[in-house]
Write a structure and sequence with these properties.
single chain; mainly alpha; 7 helices; elongated
Length: 177
């Protein structure tokens, strides 16, 4: 504080420091990484009810790679749960199972979304932006019934015969003549 040190920090280089966190009552003994345990991260840990606390005897706020990953994983899990809750509240009661993988229609281009809308004759109000259009089409997409066994069988047949559904519609054959 006054320019002098206790010698503890100088005797160990930054690479020799150990994590500043107490995990479920025990001080972590892993070496630190470049991640710090900031106030923002402390608030996130508290919100997620992780059993991590800052050791007040530590003279730094650097955490190990392991705890960094624990905090990041908890963050992504919470974000996924929030998104799932938000979607559940917005969707109709016609949804079946949340464990199924979802298509992210927002990743598609606006032109592709419009073609989907036109193909399935989905009625929407005019002037929707991309996010609103993608949400509306996602609700429609989830209502399309799929016979899984039939879809898989057709997919495997198409791959094995090196065929394309567009070729079949045009009356072309994928078989060599």
């Amino acid at each position: 504080m006054n320019g002098f040190s206790t010698g503890e920090e100088d005797s160990r280089g930054a690479a020799d420091q150990i994590c500043c966190l107490v995990d479920e009552g025990e001080r972590c003994t892993r070496p630190t990484s470049n991640a710090s345990y900031s106030k923002r991260i402390q608030n996130k840990v508290t919100q997620r009810r992780l059993k991590l606390n800052l050791d007040h005897m530590a003279r730094h706020i650097y955490i190990c790679e392991y705890h960094k990953q624990v905090i990041l994983c908890a963050r992504s899990k919470q974000q996924q749960q929030q998104q799932r809750r938000r979607k559940e509240s917005e969707e109709d009661s016609g949804e079946t199972d949340n464990d199924l993988p979802e298509a992210d229609l927002f990743q598609l281009q606006v032109g592709t979304l419009r073609r989907y809308k036109r193909h399935y004759k989905v009625s929407t109000r005019p002037g929707l932006n991309k996010a609103q259009l993608a949400d509306t089409l996602m609700k429609h997409f989830k209502t399309i019934p799929v016979v899984e066994k039939e879809a898989l069988t057709f997919f495997i047949f198409t791959v094995k015969t090196n065929a394309n559904k567009l070729d079949q519609k045009n009356g072309l054959s994928s078989e060599p003549t």
